[in-house]
Amino acid sequence: MPWLRALLFLLLSFLNTAVCGSVIVMLALLAMHQRLRPMTLSSINAWAERWVWSNRTLLFGILPSIHFDLRLPDTLNDRGWYLLLPNHQSWVDIVLLFHVFYKKLPFLKFFLKYELLYVPFLGIACKALNMPFMKRYSRAYLQRHPEKKGEDLKTTRASCAYFLEQPAAVVNFMEGTRLTEAKQLAQNSPYRHLLRPKSGGVGFVMSALGDRMDSVLDIVIVYPSGIPSLLDLAMGRLRHVIIDVRVKPIPSSLRHGDYENDAVYRAHFQEWIQKLWSEKDDCIEAICREEASHA
User: Fold this and answer.
1) What is the residue range of 182's domain?
2) Of the four listed, 42, 151, 273, 292, which is most buried by Cβ atoms within 10 Å?
3) From CA 247, how far away is CA 255, in angstroms rounded?
4) What does the DSSP assignment read for 233-247?
5) What pLDDT, in 10s, does the model give residues 79-127?
6) pTM tops 0.85, yes or no
């Protein structure tokens, strides 16, 4: 029974993505014509919201109920501009963020790994929605190909131009990859529950959209029973998740600056991110201790 339910959930989710993704791509092609752009942008957003609504329906209609312990501010606005900074442990994080912020924020725009561009239907639809695809290069590769340095910032710059057109909720997993103990050791991470944050992409978003951004949403995701995979979600093994969202004001000194070329601004920005990350780590530790005391 769990396998049949998982197969049904995954199949219907794929079909939903195929249909909605295809429509979004066709609308994006129409949006290339300037006269049709205002009308098609609203249609693209409507279909993106329909995709999320359908996935939420599948999530709660097919899978066993998940206990959500949500700690959300009551000031969220679906017509505002937000920068969301969650910790990252699993692909399930993305599914849950879409669920939690549905109709509470504008449609979420994620910074995505370049490899996801080739996922059938999903990749090209995300591209049509102007989500930035980040191509990471190793230090050794950049030494051999210095012309590739700064490619991620160019991608971010192009996406930020689109984020100015409509309210946006920009999501960046600053750790750059999913958390594992091996990655923590390899990085010599100073955090108990996090990897080191990479601030370049977010720094440029702030430089480009600082005047528009209402605030930063510092998001903590905790899985009390262990980090789930997408298969765990489909099999109904995820039964409890804690999501804590805190509004962080953006210092006025960080709303204007040149992260790429201004060393003083960059150092100030990185210091702010490190403080935010330390507070996030403390928040996760407090939640884990609270859960352990109830076990």
Assistant:
1) 65-294
2) 273
3) 16
4) HHTT---EEEEEEEE
5) 999 999 999 999 999 999 999 999 999 999 988 877 777 787 788 888 8
6) yes
